[in-house]
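Handout, page 2. Input:
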Amino acid sequence: MKYLVYAALLAIAIAAPFLFPDYRTSLAALWILIIVALTWDMTGGQMGYNSLGNIFFYGTGMYVAAVICIALVYDVGEYTNAFSGEEQTFTSEQYFTGMLVGCLGAGVFCALSALVIGFLTFGLRGPYFAIGTLGVAIAAGELVSNWEWIGGGQGIALPVYPGDFEAGKDFFYFLFLVTGVALILLLGWLYRTRFGLAINAIRDDEEKAEGMGIKTLSIKLFTWSIAAFFVGIAGGISAFQLIHFEPLETAYQTINLGIFMVVCVLLGGKGTLWGPVIGAILFHLFKEVTWNYFLGWQWVALGALIVVTVVFFQQGLLGWLMDKKPEWFGIRVESREAAK
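Output:
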């Protein structure tokens, strides 16, 4: 029965851009939220290390993918907006090769960056870790915005999708879909292994986990590098979808996507596989409505949503449902009369 539900959900996801062709870009944005929410929950929910700097991997993924794609054909410094306003062209082969190599390179680079940053910051705990990672993201955005070789504050303009514009919307949607589904499958398997038990042990009591022989630093670095890999790929795909992006407003958007990924997890439920997915869907619907119909008040509405979630749904929607309706999740609860 469970696999039938998963198959039905996958079928709906595949059919979505054809059923709602006018919302393909919005549906692609939903998959970005799902990816970043799931990866944030790997460290914040499953492992207990709340990061405010995961947006670093998204923005870095955008720039690494763009630089690799451009460098395969042109000199990067001459291509970028800061050095040249001339329009450059790419063949279809150059475009798709650059995208493939660029996005994979973005994932690998971000994973390696996570190892370095994690080695320096995982000695911090609680709010100190959160502030430390936030500082890394803010510093990266400022450094990139002043790096003229990659466009500086003007950003980078990538080539346009070499085909029909409408077909391009489908293409990018399915790239995000494949990335998101691959991440869900990977996490669904990992959380059922001893690795899942290890990261939960770190969350519950890291000192005891170390005393039990768990190599906590290695586990933490491995977890964050996996998360960074997928966020980097998502950022790389976003770079090609957006065509033109800037460092502070688009890539290292700490006050937008950097906050949204945390809200999605809090809304759906920390430390669960499907909580971040549910939270991302609900938050995306909320954001689309408020950003379109309550413009000017959208941040007030977002603040109200966070307050309501923290006060009334501290375990997230999924955790709240598990407490109220445990039988829906296959949890048996004996009544007090039966216990007597």
